[in-house]
Structures are given as structure tokens and as C-alpha cells.
Amino acid sequence: MRPVVALLLFASLTLAACQREERDTRPQSALGSGEQPTPVTTLEPGGQRPYPTDNKAASFEANAFHLSEGKRLFGWFNCSGCHANGGGGMGPALMDEKWIYGKSMESIHATIRDGRPNGMPSFRDKIPDDQIWELAAFVRSLSGNAPSSAAPSRNDDMMVHPSENRMPDAATLGKSP
Amino acid sequence: MKQATQLAAFCGDPACTDRPAAFRKHLGVLTATLLVCAPLLTAASEAPSTPAISPPAAAAPPDDGQWAMPAKNYASTRFSDLAEINEGNVKNLQVAFTFSTGVNKGQEAAPLVVGNTMYIVTPFPNVVYALDLSKPGAPMKWKYEPNPEPAAQGVACCDVVTRGAAFADGRIFFNTLDGHTIALDANSGQPIWNAHIANINIGETITMAPLVVKGKVLVGNSGGEMGVRGWVKALDAGDGHVVWTAYNTGPDKEVLIGPDFKPHYDMDKGKDLGVTTWPPEAWKIGGGNVWGWISYDPDLNLIFHGTGNPGPWNPDLRPGDNKWTSGIFARDPDTGAAKWFYQWTPHDLHDYDGINEQVLLDMKWQGKPRKVLVRPERNGYLYVLDRTTGEVLSAKPYGPVNSSKGVDLKTGRLIENPDKLTGTGKVVRDICPTASGLKDWQPSAFSPKTGLLYIPHNNLCMDEEGVEVNYIAGTPYVGMNVRMIPGPGGNRGAFTAWDIAAEKPAWSLKENFPVWSGAVVTAGDVVFYGTMEGWFKAVSAKTGDLLWQFKTSSGIIGQPITYRGPDGHQYVAILSGIGGWAGAIVSGDLDPRDATAALGFVNVMKDLKNATTAGGTLYVFRLP
Hints:
A: Cytochrome Bc1 Complex, Chain D, domain 2, 6 helices, elongated, B: mainly beta, Methanol Dehydrogenase, Chain A, 38 strands, about 35% strand
């Protein structure tokens, strides 16, 4: 009997060695993804360095579905309560060329997720992460920073400004330099 | 022309018959007409000893040349007996000194003057300065920085304003945006107590000026746009502990409605109306905030305070009368117990907060002496209430109103215009007045010399569309797309002198922008107010003629005051600095391409960025 026990022990140890580390092939959208630091300034001693981009940013920002979802969520999560339909109110305007905490997808995502000290609340654990990316993409479309082929083209409510796919880039207001 | 009308009104007044008998005997040879009118003709040229309309003496003591609370006195007249500056010489006014507040946000506060010191409190971060008026240039005596939470700026609906401080018993009391009431030693600026009474994480802020009554500091919360349940608290002036709290929605016990509560109208009678006039639980996030003015009648031992709009703005989410929002309470200052209530706007459809100032006056109404409360209300009516009972004696529109068709004096109820009912998914156009009201918080002034109430106000209309909204604590709970447009005539503001006895305007001045500043009137028959372009104006209290104006560095939305300086001369002071809801486009740098920005106000203020820039400066004027 003893050789059998030894064999079983040996076999189980060998099989255990075959156990590979778990790989997360499907990120869970409910959890935070981009936890890498997102700078809020372009001032870096010694010159600006590239910082890692989040692959979610690229996949969400030119996607018509995500942009239209962002538009819906912008009302549902009361973003519009403070920022109106982009012109601002309690919070700053989002359709102009001025960005206090950065204009990149990553920066806007971080602003919504973590909040900012002068009044922007933190929506971490209140809005699923993918929906924060959708909101970030829509926020960029308000200042003309989304492809017109993907940005929302209509408004279900009272017309308060041109639809997002017709918004000029706020930095140039549609004029060529 | 104006004087003639006034005399005619006086002669028709039953007060004429109350003249002393000796006076009449002396004139016995004259005809019957002259008998009545002659004494008045003499009286008109002198200061009348007993004006037909005057504040109760206990609530408006003789002027001591100081300015210890924003409304000047408990009756809230904003009238000064000082007359050194008058209609004839006001044109010579010149700057005595200026002072930068260091904060470029909307300056809605009234400076205070007590003894030889002026006190000013800035918008967020709510710095308090004491200036020594006895020295040249009024150098700083002390300053106090409360360092409020910067996050509070994110839950302040309409700029990060404060409407001022209050002085009592050697202390300065003021509120911070992040929900603290603080008492400072007026001499040293040292804090005596600091009470944290409002929570920014549910959207509460404090923007009102406190009122000190019988050793209690009365303070209410702001947040009607954030689903905040409104309350007013009395804090002990000695140590800051909360003596009583009265909510304005919910069960009677929490509203402090007890056996003493005797409302005049049937619509306000019943048990727990603060619960039953709402859908289940909606009263918990229903607004009714106290962010405006409180008056106090020492004779009746009653305080009067309005209540803000119900939340959310979209009325479909709250069927019912939404007690006790958009109304006015009379309460016992000792216990907070409610004595009566009247609802200006039941089931409000248009954000008609009921928090404006109430001027306490004694006058004859239809032959009988009445203790009244005069209120230019946001819904567009100039109400005269009997302040002992809450009965409406008069409610006349003082500007363009189409959202309602008057007030039924029998039931007390506002008659809604069915064409202007708002709701989800429906755009209703040309509603007058706007959400900001025919008049917002900007306080009026009353002169017993003229019997006129001087009302700074708006002339705006709006389109509204109700939209779905979710309640998320600490975020806006509005549910309405709004865009405002200029009212009839195109002038967006007006300054109207209202003849209270005759129930009609005596004169009205047009202003390009809404008149978002307060007013002050003096025994020199001069009225002061400011414009959003930055003009500080003096007009004749009798005729409205422009007598003098001075262009300040930024738009004016503050409250002017006047006082006697240590040198014995009269001074006039105003804080200049654009902002507030109307000026948020400049102070918050909003984008005019969005018609709904700043809850729709930006649409009608698109050109303000070209008319003024942000600022924050105190200006003090005197005669040379």
C-alpha cells in the first residue's frame, strides 16, 4: 500500500505544479480600472514626460454608442444639475476651452471618479467605471472634442445649444489657425 | 405732480380726522375743506410727527446712526433718519475710502457699522474684516478667516454668496458657506463659539445673514435645488447651542406646530400637512429652506420668516400643496412654536421661493388701524398681510405676471394660470415672472416720510421644460430645463416705488440688467441702489429722478447702508462685486452658448461679460 500512497502524493504534487496563475481576461466593469496616476498639471520639473494612457480611453471616446449613453447618464447622474447642458452653473462650463484639471479622457475620468477639491464630488463606487468612461467621452464631445460621426446628433429635450456633433472645437471655434 | 397726488391721498386718509382738536379750533374760520386739508399742507413741509404708515416703534427704534443688522432694524425698513445727505447736495458725494475684500465673487452682503468700526463679511471663504473708521483711510483693525471647506462651493446653487453678518451684545455673528455659525468678539475678532449646523454632503449650505432676537441667533439652511429639507434654528447667542429647530416639511411635531397654531385660511388647517400634502417620503427631500430674511415684532413677540421652493422644481414628482414650502411662518422666538402660516404659492410650479423680506408696518387699512407685514413676493404680488393673523389684505402685481391670475382674498389661494402649468416632457413658453421671481432676495426699503416701498426687481420671463430627475444626496435635484428671456419692454430690471396705501406704483425706473442690489432710503429723501453694470445711484425718494451716480469697479449686487461716522457726518457704503445667480455668468465664467446655464439665467445675461468683470471692493461715500 505504501507505494500507492507515495504515487498519489507524487501525482498530486506534480499536478499542483501545473496550476497556472489566474489571468483576468475580462475586466470587471464595476471595479475601477485605470488606477494609474493621472497628472493634473503639465508642469513637470525638467520637462514634460509622457504618462501612460488607459486603453479604455481610446475605445470609448470615438464610439457612438458610448457617447449617446454618456449623454443619457449626464442627466441621470445629475451632472446637468451643476454643469447645465455644458454651459455650467454651480459647476464650471464644460463646453468651453478651459480645463481646470486636464482635458484628456483619463483626466476627466479621474475627475468624476475621485472628485476635485473645489466642489466636484467623488462618484467612486456610485457610478460603474465603464459608465464614468462614457460620461468622460460625452463631456469631451460638448467642447467639440469628439468625431462628429460619433457624437450625439439630436436632443430629446428643449433645444438649448447645437447638438454635440455640430459643436465646434472650443479651442478654435471652428476657425482654422 | 407727484406731490399733488400724495396730498390728495393724505386728505382722503381717515388720519386727517385724528388731528388734535386744538389744531382744528385754531382753523375754525376756514371752510370745511380747508379745515381738513390745511393742517396737512403745513405738515407736509415739515417732518410729520405721526406718518400715516410707520414701522412699530419697538421694531424700529430711533436712529442711532449705526447699522447693526442688514435690514437696519427688526421691522426691516432699511430707512435711516440721517438727512445730512439730501436731494439737494447728494450730487456732491465723493469717495471717502475703498477697501478690497480680496474675493472676486458676488458681494451680496451689507456692511455693518457699530461705534467706530465697520464690519464686512466676504463671499466664500467668508473672511470677516473690521475697519477702524476713526482713523484716516479706515485701516484694518482685525480680520478673521474661518477657512470653510472648499468643497462647499460645489453645493451652493447660485454663486458662493453670503448676505451679511449681525451685531449684538459686543459680538459679530455670521455664517459660513460650509454650514457653520460663528460668534466673534467684535473688539478683537477672536472666535467665541463655532457651531456646525449644516451638512454639505446632503447639499446644505448657509448663505443668509443671521438675525439676533432675545439672545438667540436665528439661522436657516440653503439647498432648495439640492433636495435639502428646510429648517430654521435658534442658537444661544452665549454659547452657540441649538435651542430649537423648526423644519418646514414633515410632521407637525418637527415643524413645531402645536395648539397655538392658528392659520387664517382653511387650506393651511389640518394635521401633519407637511406629510400629507406630499407623495410618501417626498417631504424628506422637499426643500422649504430658510435662506432669506427674518423680521421680528417685539410687541407681538413673533418672528416672521419665509420658506423656500419645494424640491424638485419639476412639479410632477410632488403632487399636492407641498406644505410648508413657498410660504411664511410666524413663530414664537422663544420656542419656535408656529403661530400662523400663509402659503404664497401652493404646489409651486416655477421655483417661486417665499423667502423675501417682510417690512413690518402699522397703518390704517380700510379705516381700521392694522399691524401689517408688507412683502414684495417672488411670484409677482405685493402682499399686505395682517401680521397678527396672516390674513391677506391686498395682493397686487408690481410688474408683469402671467403665471397666475391673482390671489383669491377669500380663500387666500393663488389662482394658477392653466396655460402656464409645467410638467415632464412639455415646453411651456413665456412664463412671467421667471424662476428668479419678479423680485428675488434683493431687499426693498420703506420710507415713512413718503409712504413708499422702494423695490429693486427683475423684469424677466422664461421657457420651462420638466425633465426626469433622480435624487442623489448632495447633488442637484431640479428636473427642469429653463431659459430666461427679457420681460415686456426689453428692460431686464426695474426699480419701483410702490405706494402701499394706494396699492399702486408711484413711479418706476427701467434698468437694462436686473436690479440685483438692495436699496436704502434716508430722511434726506434719497434712495440708493446699484446696477449690475456697476453704477451706484442716488434717486429722489419722491420722484425717482436720478440725482447722482458713480461707476464702481464691478457690478453691484450688494446692500447699501448709511451711517454717521465718528466725525459726525453721514456716510453711504456699498460692496461692489458681480455675482449671485444673475451674475454667475461672470463670477463663475459660464458659457453663454448654453441657454440653460445657471438654471437658465445665462440665456438672458449673455452680454453681462461685456458690461462688467468680477470684483470685490467696498466703496464709502461722503459729502466734501
